[in-house]
Design goal:
The protein has 409 residues and is of the alpha+beta class. It is 42% helix and 24% strand. α1 crosses α2.
């Protein structure tokens, strides 16, 4: 019992003696080699600080407060999505967001007509400048992302980069894993119904992706790492009306200083749905101060002319007088986002079609089982009635006076 009582004290004394020995050894080494010891202590402190900050904010290199030495907010490692959202919310609470776009200016562009050439003014440089930016969707191909870049070719813009991809219903319709060689009228009618259902599911999936702002769920592995996050902040002016302001933030590798992760704050510019010109959904975000470029990022999906498909396009427009990212980086940005949206919409559409197919099969099986049970119950009741009638006939046959008895009284 005495040994067990003194065991913790012995362990504590051993730990204290080891700590004192290490302290004496360190003091001796510091007195002998002061420079090397100082460097080692600084390296150890930096390592501990990096281990502590890496999972929290990605190790902030620059906050962009000094434009002469830094273009914008930069982190060494990929920043977490929660840190990005918290960064923008804190900026809003400190004094609101400020657009980094240059002052709007009117640019006169010539549009050819059959009778004469008229000049129509167009506003470039303000919020919503990509609302009337016309882009051709005829070059979009299925399964591939086509990128077109124009530098100083569009009036008023220093850089316009667009990535497009086409999604059709041919490869997205599942017919239960069976391929019929001969198609009759019923199979053709079923195929048409499947195409309509697949198109409706595609519209629903794309609409949900645009409403939820899930633009970077499936960024390709061979492209630069990219994150996009959208969120809402409450407006302090109209607290009773519950008015909200939507913001966004994006982090991309090679966008920041020294080739590291650059953080770009964004704010919504406009959002449209179900336009008459075939545009299903469109949403645009403009840049805020503290980022690495000045422009507007537009996401849109349109119906393909003459084909049962949709075209997903992502456009980055930089007006003249604004900071523009490198062309390769801008092309990688829009192509990665367009491919991610297309893959997300296809996955959601296939999941919806699969769930509906399973539901139909389950209802058919349940209906079949119910019909079989009803038929069995009917046969059993019929057999019981026949057996009861047979017993009654036998009883009458064996009892001649059956049915003629009359009570006295």
């Amino acid at each position: 019992s005495m040994a067990s009582a003194t065991l913790p004290r012995r362990i504590l004394s051993l730990v204290v003696s080891l700590f004192m020995a290490l302290l004496k050894t360190a003091s001796v080494q510091i007195s002998r080699y002061p420079r090397q010891s100082t460097v080692l202590a600084m390296v150890l402190a930096c390592t501990l600080l990096a281990v502590h900050n890496a999972p929290r904010n990605g190790i902030v290199i620059s906050s962009g407060s000094c434009p002469m030495f830094s273009r914008g907010h930069t982190t060494f490692f990929e920043p977490p999505a929660d840190y990005l959202e918290r960064l923008s919310v804190n900026s809003w609470e400190k004094g609101g967001w400020t657009s980094s776009l240059p002052e709007p200016m009117e640019v006169t562009s010539k549009k050819k007509s059959s009778k004469s050439k008229k000049q129509s003014p167009q506003t470039v440089g303000g919020v919503g400048m990509t609302r009337f930016l016309e882009l051709a969707t005829s070059n979009a191909e299925e399964g591939e992302v086509t990128v077109e870049t124009s530098r100083s070719k569009v009036d008023g813009f220093a850089l316009v980069t667009t990535a497009q991809t086409l999604i059709t219903m041919e490869n997205n319709i599942v017919k239960g894993g069976k391929k019929e060689e001969e198609e009759d009228d019923e199979s053709l009618l079923e195929l048409v119904e499947l195409e309509e259902e697949a198109m409706n599911c595609m519209y629903e999936s794309i609409t949900s992706i645009f409403q939820e702002r899930k633009f970077s769920e499936f960024i390709p592995g061979n492209s630069q790492s990219l994150k996009f996050r959208s969120f809402l902040v409450a407006s302090e002016e109209d607290e009773d009306d519950e008015d909200f302001m939507e913001g966004g933030i994006m982090a991309m590798k090679l966008l920041g200083d020294f080739g590291r992760y650059g953080v770009q704050p964004l704010c919504i510019s406009y959002e449209t749905e179900d336009e008459e010109d075939g545009e299903i959904h469109c949403v645009a975000f403009h840049t805020l101060t503290g980022g690495h470029f000045d422009g507007e990022l537009r996401f849109s999906v349109e119906e393909q002319d003459g084909d049962s498909g949709v075209v997903i396009s992502v456009t980055l427009a930089i007006p003249k007088g604004g900071r523009a990212p490198p062309v390769r980086l801008a092309e990688s940005m829009v192509s990665s986002l367009a491919q991610s949206i297309a893959q997300s919409s296809q996955i959601r559409m296939k999941q919806t079609l699969s769930r509906r197919s399973q539901s139909r099969n389950y209802r058919a099986q349940a209906s079949g089982r119910a019909s079989v049970r009803r038929h069995q119950r009917f046969e059993q009741e019929k057999l019981q009635e026949e057996m009861a009638a047979e017993r009654k006939r036998k009883w009458k046959r064996n009892n001649r006076d059956a049915g003629s008895y009359r009570p006295s009284g």
